[in-house]
Amino acid sequence: MVARPTAASSGAAAADPWAGRPPHHCAGVDEVGRGCLFGPVLAAAVVLTAEAATHLAAAGLTDSKKLSPRRRAALVPLIRQQANAWGIGQASAAEIDRFGIRPATEAAMRRALQRLSAAPELVIVDGVLPVRGWPGEQVTLVGGDSHCGAIAAASVLAKEERDALIRRLAVRFPGYGLERHAGYGTALHRQALQRLGPSPLHRLSFLRSILPAAGG
Question: What does the mean pLDDT of the chain come to?
Answer without folding.
Answer: 91
